[in-house]
Amino acid sequence: MKPTLLLVDDSELVLSELSLILRESGIFSGIFKARDGEDAIRTTMKEKPGLIVLDLQMPRMDGFTFLRWLMTNHPVPVVVFSSQGTDDNIFRAMEIGAVDFITKPDTYIDDMFRTYFLDKMRVALEANVRPGRQPSIQHVVVPTPGKTVGPSEYDIQAIEIGRASCRER
To answer: How far, in Å, CA of 72 to CA of 44, rounded?
Structure first.
């Protein structure tokens, strides 16, 4: 059975563009939308999504507040999708429980972005998220937007959560 997905963003343009990409992919059985954290809580309680794509900056209840509620009450993989791509925001969201982060691009219609975004969704669905525990993704390999990827060239990005220290490999 295919999982469902919840998109949480206060921008109608973002919700529409991402919905179109996700519907065309066929990965999800249903795609739900929420305009802020409060709406996301109601939708999560009703629909029980298997994956959430979350903006951080929203009115009424921001993404960080919703993420804390989610990890306590309905822990599922979350990919943060925000223009606020500072290291502090990324690490704060990952500490709370997000499994990945994507910076919002200038356009969503680019084929490279579509591939990148859908690869991130597939990997996030494999994350192991449990109450009170940090999520875990292992061996993540995705092409970085804007880079040409040939048959044997990869820009590898890996984040291992829950370790006492980080190191480059």
So the answer is: 13
Angle between helices 63-73 and 87-96 (to 10 degrees): 20
First-to-last CA distance in the chain?
A: 36
The model's pLDDT over 91-138, given as tens digits with 9 standing for 90+, comes to 899 999 999 999 898 877 788 999 999 999 999 998 876 555 444 443
Inter-residue contact 114 to 22 (CB < 8 Å): no
- Comparing CA positions, the residue from 28, 27, 34, 30 lying closest to residue 54 is 34
If one counts every other C-beta atom within 10 angstroms of the C-beta of residue 101, the result is 21
Write the pLDDT tens digit of every residue in 18-76: 999 999 999 999 999 999 999 999 999 999 999 999 999 999 899 999 999 999 999 99
Q: How far apart are CA 153 and CA 22, in angstroms?
A: 27
Return the structure tokens found at 155: 């820009």
Whole-number Cα distances in Å, 24 to 16, 18, 104, 142:
12, 10, 20, 20
Residues 6+ apart with CB under 8 A from 73: 44
